[in-house]
Specification:
The chain is built from 2 helices and 4 strands. It is α+β, with helices and mostly antiparallel strands. The chain has 2 domains: 38 residues; 61 residues, SH3 type barrels. It starts with a helix and ends with a helix. The mean pLDDT is 87. It comes from Salegentibacter flavus. This is Sec translocon accessory complex subunit YajC.
């Protein structure tokens, strides 16, 4: 029993790290994967580097998307799309559609 009380703080620390660090990261990664899978042509998106555009085409071979911007068409990996910024960009459009 004495050994268990010695290791209790260490075990507790691993439990806290799991619930406050590892589990939320796994949940976020799953959400980003679902976001990338649900994209469709015509969606307005923002990349992690700040490039704004509209999806024109997909390349399943390279796991990338072709984005139309003011400067032309650019190809980005799906992993470079920002889920948070894209959702913020599309929220006003959804609210406007709901009002009509």
């Amino acid at each position: 029993m004495d050994q268990l009380t010695q290791f209790a703080p260490i075990i507790l620390m691993f439990v806290v790290v799991y619930f406050f660090m590892i589990r939320p990261q796994m949940k976020r990664a799953k959400q980003e994967k679902n976001f990338a899978a649900e994209l469709k042509k015509g969606d307005r998106i923002v990349t992690k580097s700040g490039m704004h555009g509209k999806i024109v085409d997909f390349s399943e071979k390279n796991n990338s998307v072709v984005i139309e911007t003011g400067a032309g068409k650019i190809t980005f990996d799906r992993s470079s799309l920002s889920m948070e910024m894209s959702r913020k960009l599309n929220e006003p459009a959804k609210l406007e559609k709901e009002k009509k």
